[in-house]
Design a protein that fits this description.
This protein has 330 residues and is mainly alpha-helical. It is built from eleven helices and five strands.
């Protein structure tokens, strides 16, 4: 079968996708295969969608575009992940950077769900420790946020519980010993569970921030999520206790603490502390290392608040609360 290779370096932009479309159209492609982490898989899904829908991609992009549905179904797609983090192989959107607007946004349609997802933990064995850590923490985040989302269902709860348990028991181990096949398998399954959960129950403030932070600074998505997670957890728990003390999300955060720590009597604070300590042990960098400054925070919050991910957060955080999250992540 004739093939045409298209390489994706770093996280894809709208221009990246259009370049891929141009090459695929010239080749006469009728199938798109994405091999790699979330970035090449998202690029593959975007190429498959835009190849079938020529014209201005901003007609279909969320936030910065018109957000209209695709006119025609995306081309068939096969996704083969080589990292354990994004779960992009089982989601129906592609995240693309829009450099002029300094934000990352989604192209979304049901037909963009890959037709085949080949998840083989052995393909992740060569990941460096830093990539293993950031993508693994992203997988944990994508199991945790749908679990506390107000859109959670019994089915997504099952994926979340399984994914969080596997990530909690194996993330430290796989970063210490990348050859541990059982730990690699746990992280691959956690990533898959997270993708299936978020595709049906949405995410939360961590990923609401990830679009503008990743669009404004050269910060890898996994590292952004890893840095934000404990601070968003802390802000959500505090806001829920103060404004919605009877919210079922409080009990869910309690269960998160139990799953992560392995202790039935774990408190809400124990869950936050566990995630905070994990990030420190895995050397997750602060946002200041990417050039973020205090003066950037209001703009980031303004871009984050209308995002689709922010709508899944268990409670609406105020602008002041969101700024405080970013201050703690600097």
């Amino acid at each position: 079968m004739p093939l045409s290779d298209f390489s994706v370096s770093g996280e894809p932009s709208v221009e990246t996708a259009l370049q891929g479309v141009q090459q695929a159209r010239a080749f006469g492609a009728d199938l798109v295969i994405g091999i790699g982490g979330g970035s090449p898989i998202d690029a593959a899904k975007a190429i498959a969608a835009l190849l079938a829908n020529p014209g201005d991609p901003f007609e279909f992009l969320e936030v910065v575009g018109r957000g209209r549905p695709l006119r025609q179904p995306a081309l068939p797609t096969i996704a083969i992940p080589t990292t354990a983090g994004t779960g992009a192989e089982v989601t129906r959107n592609a995240v693309l950077a829009a450099p002029e607007q300094r934000v990352k946004v989604s192209l979304r349609h049901a037909s963009m769900l890959p037709d085949i997802a080949l998840v083989d933990p052995q393909l992740t064995y060569d990941m460096p420790r830093a990539v293993t850590a950031s993508t693994g923490l992203d997988a944990l985040t994508q199991c945790l946020e749908p679990f506390v989302s107000h859109l959670a269902t019994p089915l997504t709860d099952g994926f979340c519980r399984e994914g969080m348990a596997r990530a909690a028991r194996s993330l430290r181990q796989v970063c210490a010993d990348g050859s541990d096949s059982d730990a690699r398998r746990d992280l691959a399954l956690a990533s898959l569970c997270g993708g299936l959960a978020l595709a049906n129950a949405k995410l939360g403030a961590v990923h609401g921030f990830a679009g503008p932070v990743g669009g404004m600074f050269e910060a890898p998505h996994g590292a952004v999520c890893a840095r934000l997670l404990p601070h968003v957890m802390e802000a959500n728990v505090r806001a829920l206790q103060e404004r919605e003390p009877h919210s079922p999300a409080i009990a869910r955060y309690q269960e998160v603490a139990t799953i992560l720590t392995g202790h039935r009597d774990a408190t809400l604070a124990d869950g936050v502390a566990w995630v905070q300590q994990l990030g420190e042990q895995l050397s997750v960098p602060g946002f200041a290392s990417y050039g973020m400054q205090q003066s950037d925070l209001e703009q980031i919050v303004a871009k984050a608040m209308p995002s689709s991910s922010m709508q899944g957060n268990p409670i609406a955080l105020t602008e002041a609360e969101l700024i405080q999250v970013l201050e703690r992540a600097l």
